[in-house]
Structures are given as structure tokens and as C-alpha cells.
Design brief:
Radius of gyration: 18 Å
Structural class: alpha/beta
Largest sheet: 8 strands, mixed
Strand content: 15-25%
Distance between the termini: 41 Å
Length: 238
């Protein structure tokens, strides 16, 4: 579905930081682990806080961390309008966050709270892509050889042409992503990200290419890489 270019309406950023992070092997949930002297989730929030297009931020956290989240927000952030307890699944957490965004929101940005690094202009490019598409996701083309495995053996080599990894934040027309989540809930479909819910509706998702190291913190050693990258960013907040 094509759209004519229009003025950007109200933009809400939804930061999902309610996961358990079982692979992280820490007594502290990874989104609250220390990164450069701040909780990991701080870095995601700070990118939206400073971006001029973003009008509000909704933070979704585990119910046991709401007090900690409130203390962080009170001290550091003015755009956070709600702190929401997450659900049993990521999709449930997103739906709870969507319910707390302003009803006049036109553009929804949905971001993993454990991705501390993304460039400022990525938000601009994602929002601009919504002039053409109902949704847009940042992608990085795969540069390595891909192997399909069968147990511990290589079954075949996969053609990597046209293959990319999806990142966040992902951008959506607010009415579209609300409808997509309601449909997925009704059909009991759990996707690995939010854009797949839009794909299931038969709509085309725009791909915005990025080469920036927008890493997802999954293992403790990922924090070391993120630390080095943050130290290299002279314009990073804090």
C-alpha cells in the first residue's frame, strides 16, 4: 500500500525490557546490568529521549523492577509517560505497552531494551519509510557464508543473496501495528519480532539498511563489545 508524503504526526517509542534473559547467566536481568556506569536499558531510552521526532516513551519492564525503573526515569528522562509491567511473552508485553501509548499516536517505534546502540538518523529514515510502507525495519545484509546444519553436521550451504538480519527499532503506522497484534492474539500467533505480524496481514514491510553495530546483548561478553563501542562514540549521552 502506497502513501503520499505527509507531515510526521505524534511519534511514540515503546521500549521492551521485561525479558528474563535466561542465556545471560546473571542474578541481575541483563537489561539492568551495568554498561558504562548505567543500566543497560538506559542507553536505549536515552536515544529516544534526545531524538526530536519522538514525543513520548513507554517502558515495559518486569513487574518486580517497576520501582527501579521509576527511579531511573525520574532522574534521567522526561519523555517517559508510562512504565508498564510486561506479560508472559514478548508479544504480550508489546500489547500492554501499546495500550498505554497516547491514542493520537500516528507512528509507533518498537525497540528491544537490550539493544543499546543505534544511530540517531536511523529513526529519521524509518519514519520517512512510512511514507511508502505501513511498517519499516532496519536490516543488515549478511556478509558471511551461511550453513544449514543437520545435528552436528553441515547439510548444505545457503545462498546469502538478499538475506539480512532484522534489528530494532522497528517503525509502524500505529493503527496497523495495533491491528496486527490484535489479529495475532486472536489467532494465537507468536512471532519473533513485530514486523512479521504486519507481513501476515499481507502488507509490505520496508527495509532500511544499516551497517551500524546495533548489537543485541545476549551473552555477558556482548557487554564488553558494547562498552568499547560506547567509548568510541564521542557524542554519546552521559
Amino acid at each position: 500500500m502506497k502513501r503520499k508524503k505527509k507531515r510526521v504526526g505524534r511519534v511514540a517509542a515503546l521500549v521492551i525490557a521485561a525479558g528474563e534473559g535466561k542465556r545471560f547467566s546473571s542474578r541481575v536481568p541483563k537489561q539492568w546490568s551495568d554498561l558504562a556506569g548505567r543500566p543497560l536499558v538506559y542507553w536505549a531510552l536515552s536515544r529516544f529521549e534526545r531524538h526530536p521526532l519522538v514525543n513520548e516513551i513507554v517502558l515495559v519492564v518486569d513487574s518486580t523492577r517497576r520501582a527501579k525503573a521509576r527511579a531511573l526515569v525520574k532522574k534521567e528522562f522526561t519523555k517517559v509517560t508510562a512504565i508498564v509491567s510486561g506479560g508472559k511473552t514478548r508479544a504480550a508485553s508489546v500489547r500492554r505497552g501499546l495500550e498505554k501509548t497516547s491514542p493520537d499516536t500516528e507512528v509507533m517505534l518498537i525497540h528491544d531494551g537490550v539493544r543499546p546502540l543505534f544511530e540517531d538518523d536511523l529513526v529519521d529514515r524509518l519514519v520517512a519509510a512510512l511514507d511508502v510502507y505501513e511498517a519499516a525495519v532496519p536490516v543488515t545484509l549478511v556478509g558471511e557464508t551461511l550453513k544449514r546444519l543437520s545435528g552436528a553436521a553441515v547439510e548444505s550451504t545457503v545462498d546469502r543473496k538478499g538475506i539480512a538480519t532484522a534489528k530494532t527499532p522497528q517503525a509502524f503506522r500505529a493503527d496497523v501495528i495495533r491491528q496486527a497484534h490484535l489479529l495475532a492474539q486472536k489467532e494465537r500467533f507468536e512471532g519473533t519480532d513485530d514486523s512479521v505480524l504486519v507481513e501476515r496481514m499481507g502488507l509490505t514491510v520496508g527495509a532500511v539498511q544499516t551497517t551500524f553495530p546495533n548489537i543485541k546483548i545476549t551473552l555477558p561478553e556482548d557487554l564488553l563489545l558494547a562498552q568499547a563501542l560506547i567509548a568510541a562514540q564521542k557524542d554519546w549521552p552521559g
